[in-house]
Amino acid sequence: MLRMLCLSLLLGLVAPVMADTLTVGQPAPVFALKDQSGVMRSLEQFRGKWLVLYFYPKNDTPGCTTEACNFRDGQAFITGLGAQVVGVSIDESASHKAFAEKYKLPFPLLADAEGTVADRYGALSNWGVVRFAKRQTFIIDPRGVLRKIYRDVDADKHAQQVLDDLKALTTRG
After folding, report:
1. A Gene Ontology molecular-function term (predicted)?
2. DSSP class of residue 8?
3. 118 with 20: CB under 8 angstroms?
4. CATH number, residue 101
């Protein structure tokens, strides 16, 4: 039992380091997950537009609420740049639905209950019995290529930072 616990902890420390090897210029890892309404959403559906894919730890917690509401409040500017915001956590769809309704979030929240997509993006913190998506964001271009990676996110300022970077990325031509 102790051996298994030690192995789990070691893998929990090593796996995120390996997954953090995603770099700007690489194709974004594919995904297909259900949103808060039970609609299947995939990376392929967002081809042709910019995608802001943000991972967050838990619905209806202070930092996650701040981040989601800031994206909500900047939604018109973000969509004006031809981009779509999509949130991902390991919460279930029902929890996403309640969170989206409570705060009137106008974008999809994807349920990655198994944590497989968060893991592909290096955004899964897995300590065995405690798992959550790390607060990280990826800007993906219309061809499905990673153009910006945020591994250190301040929930209060992040939506504005993403908006500023989207402006720069979309005006490069």
Report:
1. peroxidase activity
2. H
3. no
4. 3.40.30.10
Residues serving a catalytic function are 64
Q: Tell me, yes or no, if the pTM score tops 0.70.
A: yes
Q: How many residues does the chain have?
A: 173
Reading the block at residue 159, the tokens are 């939506």
- Provide the domain count of the chain: 1
Alpha helices by DSSP H, listed for the chain, are 2-19, 62-73, 75-80, 93-103, 116-120, 158-170
Q: What's the rounded Cα separation, in Å, for the pair 95 and 93?
A: 5
CB 55 within 8 A of CB 137: yes
SS (H, E, C) 37-81: CCCEEEHHHHCCCEEEEEECCCCCCHHHHHHHHHHHHCHHHHHHC
Whether 69 and 8 have beta carbons less than 8 Å apart is answered as no
Name the DSSP class of 123: -
- 161 closest CA partner among 151, 82, 121: 151
d(CA 125, CA 133): 6
Q: Which range marks the domain in which residue 95 is found? A: 2-170
| Distance in angstroms (rounded) separating the CA atoms of residues 75 and 80 | 8
Question: Higher pLDDT residue, 24 or 129?
Answer: 24
Task: Say if CB 96 and CB 35 are below 8 A apart.
Answer: yes
